[in-house]
């Protein structure tokens, strides 16, 4: 009997209100000592006293996943289903912050989409600190506006699946909700009006002071911040592109320099090989030239020797002829002519008068060595 829903309670979203909590969590709540001792026989009036005693919020904790007192009171509200006015008073309570959180959580589970946005969005301006028990049993610090944002935007909160609600812009399109107006807009408007009044009062002080106050308006500051962010992003893209181009140019110059060095080394090797080849040909030509000079000197030396021998023989013959018997003038003139013809014939037989100058040079060398001439 203690776990049954109030007979006068209405179905919420087509089901028993207690079914909004998963069955496993329901069974853990029913077995918990706090539920049996502190939540038995509570009504809407006496529930407030128990809510005022709360000092933290949370779902389940520990190895066996025990429910927190906050979750037990949420389950009790689903069981007895208090009136909407009582829940709204819970939400509007500013003295006890955990009472406000309890009412907001219950309204998020059972309220309509319009009521959820209408009563929970003003709680964004509440920045009070709250203690939240984590699943490992430790406590963490959170704030009222963070809990409200979790209820409006997340699918799970305190280990309970939140019912689906329409997006705010959908309700605004259907004209079910008015556009949200931030509480800070009044402050902004007052500040802008105050600055405009100061600008009007400072007209006599010159245009510089008027421009100074005009530039410091919140709207101007926001526009200036947006422009600064846009310029910073554009500059970052430009610097990144510039760095990429610089790196590409460096790589290109490095590769081109390496290509030039390879071409320079290749040309140097080519020139060195050509110089070595030319040097070898020059050495061969020089060696051939020296050989021909040596052959010519040897040939000239042989000619001089043969000529000196022939002159010494002719002188000896003349001396012998004069000493033996005088001859006639005609006979003495014919003998040198015969000798010259004989020498010419011998010289022709040597092959030194060959039309090819190379063969003639070779025959001269062979004649000096006593070899047969080439034909």
UniProtKB/TrEMBL annotation:
Residues 185-201 have a biased composition (Acidic residues). Keywords: mRNA processing, mRNA splicing, Nucleus, Spliceosome. Residues 179-270 form the Pre-mRNA-splicing factor 38 C-terminal domain. It holds the Pfam family PRP38_assoc. It is found in: Nucleus. InterPro entries: PRP38, PRP38_C. One of its GO terms (cellular component) is precatalytic spliceosome. Residues 185-375 are annotated as: Disordered. Residues 207-234, 241-301, 328-337, 346-364 have a biased composition (Basic and acidic residues). Residues 302-327 have a biased composition (Basic residues). One of its GO terms (biological process) is mRNA splicing, via spliceosome. The keyword Isomerase does not apply. Belongs to the PRP38 family. Required for pre-mRNA splicing. PANTHER family: PRE-MRNA-SPLICING FACTOR 38A-RELATED. This is Pre-mRNA-splicing factor 38. The lineage of its organism: Eukaryota, Viridiplantae, Streptophyta, Embryophyta, Tracheophyta.
């Amino acid at each position: 009997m203690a776990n049954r829903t109030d007979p006068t309670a209405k179905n919420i979203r087509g089901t028993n209100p207690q079914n909004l909590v998963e069955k496993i969590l329901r069974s853990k709540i029913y077995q918990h000592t706090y539920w049996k001792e502190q939540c038995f026989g509570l009504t809407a009036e006496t529930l407030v006293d128990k809510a005022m005693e709360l000092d933290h919020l949370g779902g389940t904790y520990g190895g066996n996943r025990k429910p927190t007192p906050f979750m037990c009171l949420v389950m009790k509200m689903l069981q007895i289903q208090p009136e909407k006015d009582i829940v709204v008073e819970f939400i509007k309570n500013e003295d006890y912050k955990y009472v406000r959180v309890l009412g907001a959580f219950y309204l998020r589970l059972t309220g309509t989409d319009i009521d959820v946005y209408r009563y929970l969005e003003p709680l964004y301006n509440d920045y009070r600190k709250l203690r939240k028990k984590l699943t490992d049993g430790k406590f963490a610090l959170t704030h009222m506006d963070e809990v409200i944002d979790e209820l409006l935007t997340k699918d799970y909160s305190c280990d309970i699946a939140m019912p689906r609600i329409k997006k705010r812009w959908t309700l605004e399109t259907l004209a079910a909700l008015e556009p949200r107006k931030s509480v800070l807009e009044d402050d902004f408007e007052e500040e802008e009006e105050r600055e405009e009044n100061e600008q009007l009062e400072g007209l006599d002080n010159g245009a510089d002071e008027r421009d100074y106050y005009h530039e410091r308006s919140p709207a101007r500051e926001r526009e200036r911040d947006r422009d600064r962010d846009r310029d910073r992003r554009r500059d970052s893209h430009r610097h990144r592109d510039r760095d990429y181009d610089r790196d590409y140019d460096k790589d290109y110059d490095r590769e081109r320099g390496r290509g030039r060095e390879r071409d320079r080394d290749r040309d140097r090797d080519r020139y060195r090989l050509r110089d070595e080849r030319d040097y070898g040909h020059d050495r061969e030509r020089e060696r051939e030239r020296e050989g021909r000079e040596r052959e010519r000197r040897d040939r000239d030396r042989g000619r001089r020797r043969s000529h000196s021998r022939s002159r010494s023989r002719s002188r000896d013959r003349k001396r012998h002829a004069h000493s033996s018997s005088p001859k006639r003038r005609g006979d003495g003139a014919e003998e040198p002519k015969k000798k010259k013809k004989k020498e010419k014939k011998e010289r022709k037989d040597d092959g030194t008068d060959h039309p090819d100058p190379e063969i003639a040079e070779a025959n001269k060398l062979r004649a000096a060595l006593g070899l047969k001439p080439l034909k």
